[in-house]
Amino acid sequence: MQPERFDHFMARANAAYYATHDFSRDFVTAPELTQVFGELLGAWAKTVWTMLGSPENIILAEAGPGRGVLMAGALRVWPTPNVHFLETSPRLRAEQASRVPHATWHESLATLPPGPLILLANEFLDALPVRQFIRRETGWMERHVQNSAYVELPANYPLPDDPEGSVREINEAALDFCTTLAARNAIALFIDYGPTQSAPGESVQAISGGNYAGPLAAPGTADLTAHVDFAAIATRCHAQGPVKQNAFLTSLGLFQRTDFLARKNPAQAEALKLSAQRLTAPEAMGSLFKCLALCPKGFPPLPGFE
Ligand code: SAH
After folding, report:
1. Where are the beta strands (DSSP E) in 91-158?
2. CATH of domain 4-129+171-199+223-294
C-alpha cells in the first residue's frame, strides 16, 4: 500500500464510522443531553433572521446534524420551511428524516439553493480531516499512514520555524468550508471544542465504544476528531467570537428555559438541571467548548456575542 496522507485517512475513517455506527452511544453531544440546546439555537437563528430583515426565502441549514435532534428542537421555536442538511452518512440521514421529514439533504455546500443563509453546526468541524506536520531536524515532515503505522514524508506546506519535535495540525477542510460560507455572506454558528488561541501540538483523538483508541488501529470503528482552530478560522473569515459555551448559552437563557421546563415537567427536572450544569461547568463542557459566528463585515453583534 502507498502511504496515504493523514487527512485523507481521517476522512475515509470517519465516513466509514458515521455510516456504520450510532455515534450517540460512543459520545454525548449537547443536543442529545437536553432539548433546551436545540431550542436556544432555534431562538438564536430566529433573532438573526429578524436582524437580516426577516427575508421570506431564508434558508436554515445544519452541517453534521447527527440524529436530527438539534434541528427538531430549533424548529419547535422557529418553524421555518426551508431546512437543509449537510450530511454524508446514509444511516444518519434516515435518523434525521424521522425527526425533520421536510428537510432537503446535501453532500456539500455547493448544492444549497441561493438566498440568505443561516447555518448551525455543533461538533461538525472537529470531525473534518486535518493535515498533521511534525518538525524534524531536516525540516517539516507530513504524516502519512501506511500499513496501520505513521510514516513521514517531506512537507510541501508553508509553516513557521517551530523547534524540532513540534507538531502542527492544519484543518484545510474546515477552513475551506468557512471560506465558502463567507463568500455567500452566510451567518454561521459553530460550536465545538478547541482553544481560543491557535496552539501548536497534536489534538487528534479516537473514540471507540466510549473509550479512547489508537487513531490508526481499526479505521471505521472509531470517531476521529481534532480540536478546532477557531483563531485560524477567524483570521481567514470575518467572525464574532470565539466565546466560551457557558457564557454563550447562559446569555441565551439556558437556565431560565431549563427552570421553566423543569417546573412544567417535574419528573424531568433533575435531568434537565444536570444537563444545563454539564453544558456550562468549566470542568465539563462549559469552557473547552467555544462558539464562533461567521457574518459579513459590519454586521451588528449577534445574540450571545454582545
Ligand atoms: N451535530 C450532531 C452530530 C455530531 S457528530 C450533534 O451534536 O449531536 C458529527 C456529524 O457530522 C455527524 O452527523 C456526521 O455524519 C457528520 N459529518 C462528519 N463528516 C462530515 C462531512 N465531511 N460532511 C458532512 N457531514 C459530516
Report:
1. 104-106, 117-122, 131-136, 139-146, 149-154
2. 3.40.50.12710
